Description:
The protein is an all-alpha fold. It is globular. The two termini are 25 Å apart.
Amino acid sequence: xxxxxxxxxxxxxxxxxxxxxxxxxxxxxxxxxxxxxxxxxxxxxxxxxxxxxxxxxxxxxxxxxxxxxxxxxxxxxxxxxxxxxxxxxxxxxxxxxxxxxxxxxxxxxxxxxxxxxxxxxxxxxxxxxxxxxxxxxxxxxxxxxxxxxxxxxxxxxxxxxxxxxxxxxxxxxxxxxxxxxxxxxxxxxxxxxxxxxxxxxxxxxxxxxxxxxxxxxxxxxxxxxxxxxxxxxxxxxxxxxxxxxxxxxxxxxxxxxxxxxxxxxxxxxxxxxxxxxxxxxxxxxxxxxxxxxxxxxxxxxxxxxxxxxxxxxxxxxxxxxxxxxxxxxxxxxxxxxxxxxxxxxxxxxxxxxxxxxxxxxxxxxxxxxxxxxxxxxxxxx
Length: 381
């Protein structure tokens, strides 16, 4: 996901936003988005063709290297059929979007099953079978997605400029977001022993158990918020933020309460030491969840720089706190760093939304019960 976002220069997310704003011109935004993402795809493919042989030559057979190079087709699909499928989210075709985005996942299962039961091949054979299926399914999903959309498929220089203005900050924000999820464990790997690192990894994994759900909801919220008019946005944005705060606290508390039972059951009694770490991280996770939702609201209002700035602030603070805390407190130092970084990112996001008048404090402080129920209804559709 991260590599595709970087390779396409964030164009698919920009297409979601503009398709939501101008549904009747969705095909034009797909065409312009694919054109805007093309330079990044070309650079990524060339880099892959150069780096992979240099790294793998001498350690792997030529057929394995060629299979690895075949993954370059995924960058091409991300900029073409992936952009068309992303636009479905923008125009509110969530059922079609969900079905089509599951097809690539099915390609792996089909490839493994066919190779195992029919060809009895090795891993390289599975990879080639997957890539062939993925390409075929990518063409199909692109055609179906494009067929559902409206408008004429013309490429506009002005549209490409708008795609870059939205997509580049989105892409740049995705990089620190991904690093934020792993930098603590990467840092600990050189500072603590394997036992403590394993305990922390289990705690971090359990505390993040709700993030896939949040990610799925965030994708829908982004598209819904993008479709709101300026007049509607005040109440709806406040409703999303209130729901994010209350919902994230609920998820964090449930995750913390289940940790003493879930961790020994899922990972074994040897990881019981991870329970206190998991509880502490789970109780801090609401700030991380809220920040993710705040970021989707910011993107939905056409301000992806807010998400980028909050993620950069969180990553910077995480690194500084890890340097200060881990040498003194070990894995608990990483927990402290994560807690404060999560809170800082959420506060930065909220402050920037208010500063840019995407949130009104007077509206935010009033419970938006009716709007929240209506929002839940929109998300469920």
